[in-house]
Amino acid sequence: MKISETERKVLIIWLIIGVLVFLAVVLINVKPKISKTEQPNTTPGENHVSDRIRYYTVKNAINKYYSYKNISDYDSVIKILDSSYVEKNHIDEDTVTTFIGESNSMMTFETGIMCLKSYKSGVYVYVVEGNEVAMSTGEVKNKMYYQITLDGNTSLFSLQPINEEIYGGVCNE
What we know:
The chain is an alpha+beta fold.
């Protein structure tokens, strides 16, 4: 039985399609191995954050805080603030502006150095240094420090303004 040239080409094409489909099925079903002992990704020998995903997750949490602050949505600001910080300072919608400031002008946050403060059971605590910047002029208004808690188990976060001493004790430059 002799195969004609046309039949051979069709057979080769079907063989290639079959191999591609097989490879696609294998690649789709391959699941990455997840380490049971996940370790935070920081710069070796230091606690500065080097994992871009974590960095931008924390940065976006701060941006969300500023978005709520800019539109004077103080109920949402309180929900983002760390619950222990809210309880300790007796923060409610009437007193929140004394702790976070009035939103007289639109502000944004330029993230600077970010360091891992602690990690335990999927909960990461970061401290961040940066500048509060007026959106209209680009002028730096204040140097600010925040502590962000990311719960990797529930995908929730909370934020707390901190002072320079707390920040400096964590980010040993």
